């Protein structure tokens, strides 16, 4: 009889331990689930693109459009009548890039690095292959105009070509036409997702090692 009591006590203790373990695990799982629900970031998909020509109102009066222009081995943004040959649809995407699909290649309006780094007072903007990590390709909308992502340099025009300047008073300013509001407010799907990276290699010499990088205009 004594042995049966011992066995019964052991069984009861084991049952209690299993029950407590289940309750603790259930509580932890519920807490973890609640934590994930509370702290998780709501991910919203991008909007369908609403590609259209970029229409602007220039300082001298009148409404014109941006157009990619290639001349002398370089690319520019020209401002011309909206029916003229260079004007084409543009996209303002989730990465704040202003991009054009030209011959199945996505090219983005890119601020001149020489101006941003203080090497030049002003220079034209150019079109470069779009990447998601180039700050020179990010543009914010402020006062109905395009500005570099840091908010320092406004996209202006001189002789009908787009440029930025370190002197805020330089002419000429232009603003986005009100018909561009839906385009600006569309968080558009990007045309591409490429990353800007560098290519380098080491060269061994009798006096030591040197590292070379490929860059625009050559290598060094």
Model description:
- With 220 residues, this protein is α+β, with helices and mostly antiparallel strands.
- It has three helices and 16 strands.
- The protein has helices spanning 2-39, 113-116, 181-184, and strands spanning 55-58, 63-71, 74-80, 91-92, 98-102, 105-110, 122-124, 126-129, 139-142, 145-148, 156-158, 161-165, 174-176, 200-205, 208-215, 218-219.
- The strands form five sheets. The protein has a four-stranded antiparallel beta sheet with strand order 3-2-1-13, with no helix packed on it.
- A hairpin with a 2-residue loop joins β15 (208-215) and β16.
- The N and C termini lie far apart (93 Å).
- The mean pLDDT is 86.
- Pfam families: DUF1561.
- This is PF07598 domain protein.
The proportion of strand residues reads 25-35%
Largest sheet features: 4 strands, antiparallel
| Nearest-integer average pLDDT | 86
Supply the helix-strand structural class: alpha+beta
* Share of residues in helices: 10-25%
Task: Give a quick set of tags describing it.
alpha+beta, Trefoil (Acidic Fibroblast Growth Factor, subunit A), four-stranded antiparallel sheet, 16 strands, 21% helix, globular, PF07598 domain protein
């Amino acid at each position: 009889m004594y042995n049966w009591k011992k066995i019964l006590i052991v069984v009861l203790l084991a049952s209690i331990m299993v029950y407590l373990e289940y309750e603790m695990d259930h509580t932890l799982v519920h807490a973890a689930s609640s934590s994930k629900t509370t702290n998780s970031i709501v991910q919203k998909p991008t909007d369908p693109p609403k590609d259209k020509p970029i229409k602007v109102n220039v300082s001298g009066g009148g409404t014109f459009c941006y157009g990619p222009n290639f001349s002398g081995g370089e690319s520019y943004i020209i401002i011309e009548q909206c029916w003229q040959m260079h004007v084409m649809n543009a996209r303002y995407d989730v990465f704040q890039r202003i991009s054009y699909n030209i011959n199945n290649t996505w090219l983005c309006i890119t601020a001149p690095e020489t101006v941003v780094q203080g090497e030049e007072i002003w220079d034209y903007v150019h079109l470069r292959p779009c990447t998601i990590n180039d700050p020179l390709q990010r543009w914010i909308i402020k006062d109905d105009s395009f500005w570099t992502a840091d908010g320092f340099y406004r996209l202006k025009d001189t002789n009908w070509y787009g440029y930025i300047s370190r002197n805020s008073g330089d002419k000429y300013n232009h603003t986005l036409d009100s018909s561009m509001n839906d385009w600006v407010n569309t968080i558009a799907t990007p045309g591409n997702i490429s990353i800007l990276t560098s290519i380098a290699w080491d060269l061994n010499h009798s006096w030591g090692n040197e590292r070379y990088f490929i860059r625009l205009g050559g290598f060094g």
